[in-house]
Amino acid sequence: MSRAAVVAGVGGYVPPRVVTNDELAQRLDTSDTWIRTRTGIAQRHVVDAGTTTSDLAVEAGLRALKNASADGADLVIVATTTPDRPCPATAPAVAARLGLTDVPAYDVAAVCSGFVYALQAGSAAVTARFAERVLVIGAESFSTILDPADRTTSVIFGDGAGAVLLRAGEREEPGAVLDVHLGSDGSMADLITVRGGGVEERTRGAEPRPEDRYFRMDGKSVFFAAVRHMAESSRTVLASTGWEVADIDRLVGHQANIRIIQAVADQLGLPPERAVLNIDRVGNTSAASIPLALADGMANGLLTAGDRVLLTAFGGGATWGSATLTWPDLPVG
C-alpha cells in the first residue's frame, strides 16, 4: 500500500449578497440574455463592505473541518489572488482564526489555477510525511479588483471560498488524490493581470495609472488558451493515472465560462452531462471555483463515493493544472 493524500472533508461558502444579471444591466450596457448566452451565469455573490477574503476562507475551512469531523490540521494552504493585504500572507491569519496558531501556513498565487496548485502542494506534503492533515482553501473577493465600468469582467466574476481537508491514507482507498499535472507560460502574463500595486509599477518612475488598479483580461485569447491547456493537461494527468476518458465519471473544471467547460469536454470526447456545474449560481470565483463546485456537487448528489473525478483549470500567469482522484464517502449537510 502506498501513502497518499485522501480527501476527508469538503466545505464551501459564498457571501450572502447576490447580484443578478438584471442588477448589472441597470448600470452596464448588457442584459440578462447577453450574459447567460455568453457565460452561462445568472447571478454571483459579492462581499459587503468590511468583509475580507480571510473571512470567506475561515468559513469554508470550518465547514470542511466539520464535514471531516476533524478538530484541526497541521498545515494550511490558501490559494488566492485577492489577499487581505499585499503583506503578510493571508493563510497565517486564517490558520490563527481557526485555532491553528502553531502550524505552517502560506499562500499560493496562481489565480484560477490556484486550487489545483495548492492541492498538489498539500498532497505532496502528506506523501512526504511533512503533514498528516492539510487544509487546502481557495478563497477570493474578486469583486474588489474589478472595474465597475468594464462589462467584460464585471459580469463574470463572483466571490466565495471552498476548502478541502486532506488526511494521510492509502492510494487504493476512495478519496485518494492520485496524480496532479501543473504547467505555466509566463509569456502570457498580460492575458490575465492587475498591472498596478507591485514593484513593476513602483519602479516605473511615473505616476500610477488609475486603470492599473483593476483586473484586466483578454477574453478571446484566454478562451482559446484555456481550452487548449486544460484539455492537454487533462490528457497528461489521465495518462499518468492510467485512466481513459471513458473512465471519468465527473469532470470538475474551473467554472470560468460555460462555453470553456463545454469545449474542454468536447476536446476530450467526454459527454457534457458528466461536468459538474455551478457557474450559473456563483459565477467565476477564481481559486475558489473548483472546491466550491466540489462542495455543490456533493450536496446535490452529483458526486458519489467511488466516482472517478477529473479536476482541471487555467489561470493567470499563465498557469494550468489537472488532477485525478476517486470520490470518498462523505456526509452531506
UniProtKB/TrEMBL annotation:
Limits of the Beta-ketoacyl-[acyl-carrier-protein] synthase III C-terminal domain: 238-327
Catalysed reactions, semicolon-separated: malonyl-[ACP] + acetyl-CoA + H(+) = 3-oxobutanoyl-[ACP] + CO2 + CoA
Keyword annotations of the record: Acyltransferase, Cytoplasm, Fatty acid biosynthesis, Fatty acid metabolism, Lipid biosynthesis, Lipid metabolism, Multifunctional enzyme, Transferase
Main location group: cytoplasm
Location in the cell: Cytoplasm
Keyword Cytoplasm: yes
Catalytic residue positions: 112, 254, 284
Region ranges (ACP-binding): 255-259
Entry superkingdom: Bacteria
Its EC number(s): 2.3.1.180
Cited InterPro entries: ACP_syn_III_C, ACP_syn_III_N, FabH, Thiolase-like
Metabolic or biological pathway: Lipid metabolism; fatty acid biosynthesis
Record's subunit section: Homodimer.
HAMAP family: FabH
Family of this protein: Belongs to the thiolase-like superfamily. FabH family.
Name the record gives this protein: Beta-ketoacyl-[acyl-carrier-protein] synthase III
Species per Swiss-Prot/TrEMBL record: Streptantibioticus ferralitis
